[in-house]
Amino acid sequence: MNSVQKIWENRYIIGGNSGAGSYGVLCDYKSKFINTFINDKNIKSMIEFGSGDGNQMEQFEIDNYIGLDISEYIINVCKQKYKDITNKNFITYDEYYKNSNKYDLAISLDVIYHLVEDVIYIKYMDDLFSSTNKFVIIYSTDWKEKYNGSHVYHRNFTKYIDVKFKNAKLIYHEPNKYPSLSTAEFYIYSINN
């Protein structure tokens, strides 16, 4: 188990949640933004990398949702909690790697700056961009700053994407409407095949 996985596994086991960004006004803001995009682009399927406790997912208006998280504990909690919602499912990374599906939309909300290990960050970005042939939405900070001993490492991911994923084009950027609550912003990429 890597350090990022340990942090989140332990957090969920002791009863913690996905964090302030998955609740309240920020949850509502992100859900409205994503639901508008889903409606405007006629998105039918979506995978979320870092679905956490599922609270954010409850507001998504999508035909087919897959939530993926590094915490097997919270995935099992979500599978049980949301078992009666047939169009929204949760899977572990092991289950994800057995599946070759492509989704209309892949999303990453408040995750990238928690990936403090470079090898985990690189794998995460590869998985995120290989899971879709249409769109990626990222909600994160976009500058480089590491906090020693912390579970936060801000990364300049847009530069990384420009170099690593030549088929991805940034089509929209929205500064946060609540900058006093979060420094993360929205970035939408289209995938050109």
From TrEMBL:
Q: Which CDD domains match?
A: AdoMet_MTases
Q: What is this protein called?
A: Methyltransferase type 11 domain-containing protein
Which Pfam families does this one have? Answer: Methyltransf_11 (PF08241)
What is the taxonomic lineage of the source species? Answer: unclassified sequences, metagenomes, organismal metagenomes
The molecular function terms of the Gene Ontology recorded here are:
S-adenosylmethionine-dependent methyltransferase activity
Q: Which residue spans traverse the membrane?
A: none
Q: Which residues does the UniProt record annotate as the domain Methyltransferase type?
A: 48-118
From which source organism is this entry?
A: viral metagenome
